[in-house]
Amino acid sequence: MRVDLFDFELPPENIALRPVRPRDAARMLVVGPHGAPDDRCVNQLPSLLRRGDVLVFNDTRVIPAQLEGKRGEARIGATLHKRIDLRRWQAFVRNAKRLHEGDRIAFPAGVEAVAEQRHVDGSWTLAFAGDEPVEVLLERAGQMPLPPYIAGKRPTDAADQQDYQTMFAAEKGAVAAPTAALHFTPGLMAGLAEAGVAHETLTLHVGAGTFLPVKAEDTADHAMHAEWGRIDALTADRLNAARQAGGRVIAVGTTSLRLLESATGEDGIIRPFEGDTAIFITPGYRFRAIDGLMTNFHLPKSTLFMLVSALMGLENMQAAYAHAIAAGYRFYSYGDSSLLLP
C-alpha cells in the first residue's frame, strides 16, 4: 500500500510533553467497527470491558540508553536499541559520519565503547569495555531516551525517570516505553479485578526503531527492526483458556499486540515464544491472537498507525483521529489513550 495513505495533519499543540496526573485521568477514545467514536476516560475502563476479558501488558523496563560522548574532538550521540550479547549493543548514532570502524568513543563516568561494525541501515555495533554489565554502565553514563518529538522540545529531567516507566516495568532492556500502559495505576487495576477483568504480562524490549519514519513510498519496501520478546508457556495457556471460555484478549499497547501475533499460529492458538520478531502489520492482515487493543495516538505515516488501521480499517481510523484532533486529545507517548474494539 502507498505510505502516503496513512498521512494526516497534526497541530503541534496536540503533542503532549508531560503526562496527566493521576495517570488514569487521561482521556480515552473508544472506537468500534461502526458508529461515532465515544469520548471516555481511562478510569472508566472497568465499566467498558466484560467479565472474563484479559488485558495483556508488556513488563519491559526502559533503560537509560541515550549516551553522549566523544571520539577525539567529535561529539557522538548513541541510542542503544538492541542487545547483541553481554558486551555489544546495536545503536543508532548521531554524527556517524565522524565515526569509523575501530574508533573508541569516550562516554561520561569512564564508560568507553569501540565502534565495531557499521550496518547497512546506518546503525552501529558498539562493544563496551570492561567487565560490568552494560546496564550498570548505562546507569552511570546514560539518560532516559525520550522520544524525539518530546526531547526536541524540552530536556529530560528527574520527573521522566518515573513518568516514562509503567507500573509493570520489571525486565530491563527497552529503549522506549510501552506507553499504552503508562495510564494504569494500582487503583485502576483493583477496579478491573473487581469487575472480573484479568491481566497477564509478557516481555518485548522496545527498540528505538519504533520512532523511525517510514521512508519508503510503499509499505512493501519498508523493513522493520527486530525486537526481542518472550511469552512463557503458562501465560500462553491462560490466554488460550480465557478465549475458549468466551473472554476477549485485549492487548495493552502495540508492543504486546505484535508479540502476541508473532506467537500465534494460523489455528489461533497462542504458543510460548522467545526470540526476535520483526512482524509488520498493515491493512489486509488477519489478526489471530487479539480481540481488541488499548493504545495511544500515533504518528502520521508510522508503522503503528498502519497497525491500528489494519485492526479497525483505514477510513475508520482516519475519522477517529480527525475527531481526536478536533476534540483536543493529546497525542503520542505522554498523550491520551484509545480503546479499539473491532
From TrEMBL:
Function: Transfers and isomerizes the ribose moiety from AdoMet to the 7-aminomethyl group of 7-deazaguanine (preQ1-tRNA) to give epoxyqueuosine (oQ-tRNA).
Membrane-spanning intervals of the chain: none
InterPro entries the UniProt entry points to: QueA (IPR003699), QueA_dom1 (IPR042118), QueA_dom2 (IPR042119), QueA_sf (IPR036100)
Keyword S-adenosyl-L-methionine: yes
Pathway(s) per entry: tRNA modification; tRNA-queuosine biosynthesis
Protein family per UniProt: Belongs to the QueA family.
Gene: queA
Entry keywords, A to Z: Cytoplasm, Glycosyltransferase, Queuosine biosynthesis, S-adenosyl-L-methionine, Transferase
Official protein name in the record: S-adenosylmethionine:tRNA ribosyltransferase-isomerase
One Pfam family linked to the record: Queuosine_synth
Subcellular location: Cytoplasm
Highest taxon, organism lineage: Bacteria
Subcellular location, principal: cytoplasm
Keyword Hydrolase: no
Cross-referenced Gene3D superfamilies: QueA-like
Species of origin: Novosphingobium anseongense
Catalytic activity, reaction form: 7-aminomethyl-7-carbaguanosine(34) in tRNA + S-adenosyl-L-methionine = epoxyqueuosine(34) in tRNA + adenine + L-methionine + 2 H(+)
Gene Ontology molecular functions: S-adenosylmethionine:tRNA ribosyltransferase-isomerase activity
E.C. numbers: 2.4.99.17
Record text on subunit structure and interactions: Monomer.
